[in-house]
Amino acid sequence: MFTSSIGPTGQHPGYLRPETAQGHFLNFSRLLDFNNGRVPFASAQVGRSFRNEISPRAGLLRVREFTMAEIEHYVDPEDKSHSRFAEVSSQVVTLLNRKVQESGSNQTVQMTIGDAVASGVIANETLGYFVARIYHFLVKIGINPERLRFRQHMGNEMAHYATDCWDAEIHNSTGWT
Questions:
Q1: In whole numbers, what is the pLDDT of the chain averaged over residues?
Q2: Could you give the CA distance from residue 113 to residue 92 in angstroms, rounded to a whole number?
Q3: Which residues contact 75 (CB under 8 A, 6 or more apart)?
Q4: I need a surface site. Which of 35, 91, 92, 161 has the fewest CB within 10 A?
Q5: What is the spatial distance between Cα 51 and Cα 21, in angstroms, rounded to a whole number?
Q6: Which of 87, 107, 94 is nearest to 145 (CA)?
Q7: What is d(CA 80, CA 126) in angstroms, rounded to the nearest whole number?
Q8: Phi, psi of 91 (to 5 degrees)
Q9: Distance from C-alpha of 36 to C-alpha of 2, rounded to nearest angstrom
């Protein structure tokens, strides 16, 4: 657990679980051993997490305590191809890429996962494969595809170990979530 500051002034220390992903990374060497030293492999977990929200509201986003589910998929940094990429390469998705955001715009573009990977908008096949799988899952559970987009993280939003990252965002009554 990491130290967190509690309250509006931050003068009270707290020790709550801020992320579920810590366990994945702390146990990486054991997870790799369990997979006989081979990549790719994935690990998943569900758990309680906490945030230091100064003024939590009764809404979806501003809460202090919530349940998170997270999957970490580890790949060979020299080979980020995916054996099932061809199955999803023709899937059309709505993308808001980093370069567009840096220009001050929020103009999205629709393109196939294959074209997004081939043009470098999405960094590699493995990431493209999982963007398409997330799209399929969200549509299957009832999310309107016209209210769904994938927004690429800006450089200052990404974890230090990431080369590319995308969030699925859904347009609702309060905007894009």
A1: 87
A2: 6
A3: 39, 40, 124, 126
A4: 161
A5: 14
A6: 94
A7: 6
A8: -70, 125
A9: 30
Q: What is the per-residue pLDDT across 111-170, written as a single tens digit (0 to 9) for each? A: 999 999 999 999 999 999 999 999 999 999 999 999 999 999 998 888 777 889 999 999
> Higher pLDDT residue, 64 or 88?
88
Helix (H) or strand (E) holding 5: strand 2-6
* Helix residue ranges per DSSP H, 28-84: 28-34
Q: Contact at 8 Å (CB) between 35 and 29?
A: no
55 has a pLDDT exceeding 60? no
Distance CA 116, CA 79 (A): 18
Helix (H) or strand (E) holding 118: helix 113-118
Task: Please give the model's pTM, rounded to 2 decimal places.
Answer: 0.81
Long-range contacts of 153-162 (CB under 8 A, 24+ apart): 153/98, 154/98, 154/101, 154/102, 155/98
pLDDT of residue 60: 56
Q: Which strand (E) or helix (H) includes residue 102?
A: helix 98-102
DSSP 152: E
pLDDT of res. 79: 95
